Amino acid sequence: MNAGERRIVVFLVDDQPIIGEAVRRAVANDPEIEFHYCSVASDAVMMAASLHPTVIMQDLVMPDVDGMTLVHLYQMHPALRHVPIIVLSSKEDAAVKSQAFATGAADYLVKLPEPIELIARIRHHSRSYLNQLERDAAYRALRENQQQLLEVNEVLRRLSDVDGLTGLNNRRYLDAYLDTEWRRAVRDGNPFSILMVDVDDFKTYNDTYGHLAGDEVLKLVAGAMKRCAQRPADLAARYGGEEFAMVLPATPSEGAQRVADDILANVRNLAIPHRGSQAACITVSVGGATVSPGRGESYAPLLEAADVAMYDAKHAGKNRAVVREVH
Ligand SMILES: Nc1nc2c(ncn2[C@@H]2O[C@H](COP(=O)(O)OP(=O)(O)OP(=O)(O)O)[C@@H](O)[C@H]2O)c(=O)[nH]1
User: Fold this and answer.
1) Closest ligand 1 atom, residue 200 Cα
2) Domain map of the chain by residue range?
3) PROSITE patterns given for it (predicted)?
4) Which of 21, 115, 178, 206 would be a feasible disulfide site paired with 26, CB 3.0-4.6 Å?
5) Total-model pTM
6) CA–CA distance from 102 to each of 65, 82, 87, 223 (Å)?
7) Ligand 1 centroid to 203 CA: how many Å?
């Protein structure tokens, strides 16, 4: 509901019923205005809070409580804090007027102005209050939307780093990770290893068992690789097609050889039958390369060396690992 549709709700607090009656009559002919009256100061705050007024008219001089104290109490109340208050006084008094505005009153009226002026002021203060409520609600909705957008962006960012089939990090993420870890290795002078892992006779597998079964194999091999990435900095990723990569920062070639052997064993232990393979089950070939990075070098030769090692493993009969040091 917008400000134009919400009703104006006037709440008058004055100990003199005659004033209450005069205001009631003044606003009676305006169908947009709902009027409520309270003559007892001690009931005022509770009544106001339950009525949700768009403007409060508060008499300054009341028998048991000073009107200014009530103005203060309205402003302390969470539900009334921003409701505009028109202070009603019996006389023009500069000092009282200035105190009323200092306490937070929005307006000061000497009882009682012409109905036309009274209604104009009631309308003006109520509309600006309702507009403010509307702006606050729009702002809150905007903040919620922004929050949702941030969350969606975060999900998208994570998805764009992940391969949809296997759940491993994809090539895009692998490249960025290699870049960061390589620079760290250059700084720290640590050996750096990489393994390329390729499923053996995968074309025949697809041709024999179907592409969907082939996809399931890739998922299982990805799982086996993930289990072999045991240190926090180790990263298993899908390189593309039926090829995977394992980044092993701060790992010498003996370590890379051990991880490569683990991958071979883990994949064999999956025991996925494959009629077209020599081992009669799904196996992989692993090519590994290790280098101690020097300044100014890039990791491209390391990737190339791992790739060559992987093809050497294929040519040597598949289902094996070839790991080399690159100098
Ligand atoms: N099911 C499935 N197959 C894929 C996917 N990506 C690549 N392939 C298949 O993987 C096969 C790779 O074939 P090749 O490069 O000839 O390798 P290979 O048959 O494994 O032979 P070797 O590597 O020499 O053992 C191709 O048939 C591709 O279509 C995928 O996401 N899902």
Assistant:
1) 25
2) 8-138, 171-325
3) GGDEF (PS50887), RESPONSE_REGULATORY (PS50110)
4) 115
5) 0.64
6) 19, 15, 12, 70
7) 5
